[in-house]
UniProtKB/TrEMBL annotation:
<dbReference type="GO" id="GO:0022857">
    <property type="term" value="F:transmembrane transporter activity"/>
</dbReference>
<feature type="transmembrane region" description="Helical">
    <location>
        <begin position="257"/>
        <end position="280"/>
    </location>
</feature>
<feature type="transmembrane region" description="Helical">
    <location>
        <begin position="112"/>
        <end position="134"/>
    </location>
</feature>
<dbReference type="InterPro" id="IPR050549">
    <property type="entry name" value="MFS_Trehalose_Transporter"/>
</dbReference>
<keyword id="KW-0472">Membrane</keyword>
<feature type="transmembrane region" description="Helical">
    <location>
        <begin position="56"/>
        <end position="75"/>
    </location>
</feature>
<dbReference type="GO" id="GO:0005886">
    <property type="term" value="C:plasma membrane"/>
</dbReference>
<feature type="domain" description="Major facilitator superfamily (MFS) profile">
    <location>
        <begin position="18"/>
        <end position="329"/>
    </location>
</feature>
<feature type="transmembrane region" description="Helical">
    <location>
        <begin position="171"/>
        <end position="192"/>
    </location>
</feature>
<keyword id="KW-0812">Transmembrane</keyword>
<keyword id="KW-1003">Cell membrane</keyword>
<dbReference type="Pfam" id="PF00083">
    <property type="entry name" value="Sugar_tr"/>
</dbReference>
<feature type="transmembrane region" description="Helical">
    <location>
        <begin position="292"/>
        <end position="313"/>
    </location>
</feature>
<dbReference type="InterPro" id="IPR005828">
    <property type="entry name" value="MFS_sugar_transport-like"/>
</dbReference>
<feature type="transmembrane region" description="Helical">
    <location>
        <begin position="146"/>
        <end position="165"/>
    </location>
</feature>
<dbReference type="InterPro" id="IPR020846">
    <property type="entry name" value="MFS_dom"/>
</dbReference>
<keyword id="KW-1133">Transmembrane helix</keyword>
Length: 329
């Protein structure tokens, strides 16, 4: 990545900017996960309205459940309104969700907190594919892996941010503080172009060329890449769009699908979300000599460093493996 930046800064930097702003969606999803760890203990200590322990457990657990639905709901706007406008639109309910959570302290009704967590959970699920697709479609093939890996670091940074802020403020102040970040996503995406691939798929060829030129730099010759994008889209247009169930039995489909699902299953089965949501309580229950809030920050920092480190080396390892072993399919 650094080699490409040094060699062609005018070509890489616009893509890096698009990837950084697109990754802000993952940063915002991290905020939803990270709020629970400092927020739940603070809510227990300072609650000024009627709420049961079972409610608090549900408040922590609702976002991941809603994210399942949100990911499915993202399909329509991504296809019909575009990746950029979808990200802009999602930042608005994200803002509203955190606002409702913070205003619960003044409204004094747990329903507001529930609704806020449901909204942020739904948007959480929708932002993940929207951000990933935007970054992938804006990036050149030779640096796509590196730029796509920014999302993992952004997610870890998003989790760490409420860990840090929540160590010094109450749960409702934390929620109100976090509304700044979806606004930053909205503002950033306003100045970003739509992806050339989506524009080409929607027969907006001139706009696709302008977007590609902007993403590759004014001095970059984009003719070859533009022709390739156009040819790929023409091939897709000729294909039957309806996926047949028997296609899932093809080795080129079920093998990578099984590997991906297996990785995700075992990652979640480790209980990582429980750790992220209840880190402060875990350290308190363990009788740690370090304040649970500060120990949680340490965990978040380690997670961010490890994620950034793996993200930096992952594309290099994969490319080296593929060169050594050939096509894995």
């Amino acid at each position: 990545m650094l080699k490409h930046v040094m060699k062609n800064p005018h070509k890489v930097l616009p893509q890096l900017l698009a990837a950084a702003i697109g990754s802000w969606g993952f940063f915002c999803t991290g905020l939803v996960r990270g709020w629970s760890s400092p927020g739940i203990p603070s809510l227990n200590a300072t609650k000024n309205f009627e709420i049961e322990s079972s409610d608090i457990a549900w408040i922590a657990s609702v976002p991941p459940l809603c994210a399942l639905i949100g990911a499915l709901l993202a399909t329509y706007p991504l296809q019909h309104f575009g990746r950029r406008r979808t990200l802009i639109g999602l930042s608005i309910p994200f803002f509203i969700g955190f606002l409702l959570m913070g205003l619960t302290y003044f409204g004094r009704h747990k329903a507001m907190l529930y609704v806020g967590r449901v909204i942020t959970g739904l948007v959480n699920g929708a932002l993940t594919p929207a951000s990933q697709i935007y970054i992938s479609e804006c990036s050149s093939p030779h640096i796509r892996g590196v730029l796509s890996s920014l999302t993992a670091s952004a997610l870890a940074f998003g989790i760490l941010t409420p860990y840090i802020i929540g160590a010094f403020v109450d749960w409702w102040t934390l929620a109100l503080t976090l509304i700044i970040f979806p606004v930053m996503l909205l503002v950033g995406m306003i100045f970003m172009p739509e992806t050339p691939i989506w524009l080409m798929a929607n027969k907006r060829e001139d706009e696709a060329r302008r977007a590609l030129q902007r993403l590759r730099g004014k001095r970059t010759d984009i003719d070859a890449e533009f022709v390739r994008i156009k040819e790929n889209q023409e091939k897709n247009d000729k294909k039957e769009h309806k996926i047949q169930p028997r296609e899932l039995l093809k080795g080129s489909v079920w093998k990578p699908l099984s590997i991906s699902m297996g990785i995700m299953f075992f990652q979640q089965f480790t209980g990582i979300n429980a750790m992220v949501f209840y880190t402060v309580n875990i350290f308190k229950s363990a009788g740690s000599s370090i304040d649970g809030r500060y120990a949680t920050i340490i965990v978040g920092v380690v997670q961010l460093i490890a994620t950034a480190f793996s993200g930096f080396f992952q594309p290099w390892v994969l490319s080296s493996t593929c060169r050594t072993n050939g096509d894995l399919s």
